[in-house]
Amino acid sequence: MNQNELNPGASPQAAYGARLRRLRKERGWTQVDLAGRMGYSSVHISGVENGNKSPTSRFSRSADRAFGLEGTEDSFEREWRNVKFGGLLEGFPEYVGHEGRAAEIRLYEIGIIPGLLQTPEYARVLADSAVRRGAITPEQADDRVSFLAERQAALERPRRPMMLVVMDESCIRRCVGGHEVMDAQLARLAEVAELPNTVLQIAPYDIGERRPFDLPMNLLTLPDLSVIAYAESQIRGHLERETTSVLPLLTAYHQLQAEALPQAASIAMINEARKGTP
Question: Do 22 and 109 belong together in one domain?
Answer without folding.
Answer: no
